Prior knowledge:
The chain contains eleven helices and eight strands. It is of the alpha/beta class. The protein has a domain at about 10-50 and about 115-245: Lambda Exonuclease, Chain A, CATH 3.90.320.10. Helix 2 (about 25-35) runs antiparallel to helix 10, helix 4 (about 50-65) packs across helix 5 (about 65-75) and helix 10 (about 185-200) packs across helix 11 (about 225-245).
Amino acid sequence: MILPNVPGINPNIPFADYLKLPGLSASALKKLMRSPLAFKWAKDHPDTGSTPALAMGTATHTAILEPERFKEDYVIWDGDKRGKDWLAFKEANANRSILSASEYENVEGMRNAIRNFGPAARYLQDGIAEVTIQWIDPETGRPMRGRVDWVTKINGQTVLSDLKTTRDSSPRKFGADAYKLGYHIQSALYCDGWYHLTGEFPRFVFLAVESKEPYEPAVFNTPEDVLAQGHEEYMRLQATLKECEDTNTWPPRAMEEQDLTLPAWAMDSEDEDLSDIGLDLTA
């Protein structure tokens, strides 16, 4: 796979440097989906720390998309994290990330599941990982940026792929999560950006793998109607953002008092055990 020789497409930008680039990203738009207040707070308080979940996600991405780099950047420690041996091991591997044996087994399970799954393997056979794209939105003049997990070509057409770990890779559940988490906005944004940079409109697929055994894999193509909806929504979000910037107001989700509404399924839940959904049943 050879990337187009186009300014704005770069596979050699470290993630920490990518975060410093100017431009509106899919991650920022997802914050704006929640509310302008959430967007502004995230912008003023950039998250530079790493959580255990984020660290595991990074390890999984590296193992699946850049296996050679994974071997160089990660080591296993399965002992007690106390005492001289641990301190010596940590010092000797100061420039590498340390996984426990169970964490490594989990990452390896996801890697094997997706790479040995025929519908996914065809995309991962040849390609380039972590490709940064930067462009100017022709409709708004706003700088945009994105980081594509994997770029390849299938039957002569460019395919942009995004790797997602998930609790449930079934079509119904993954589709619901995709809408809630703005995956359709991300896919539309990246496809539009690629088109503005190269003149070619790519396909976009999600490579999904469950994060627990048996690590069920799945591949989801993003059809035209989903991309169209994503485009419409991110343009609407850009309009909201411009209004907030022009007026310097960053409202929360709701500005007025609201009635409490219950989900539809709650009407039929009289005899159901609700102890596992996080409600305080003693209040």
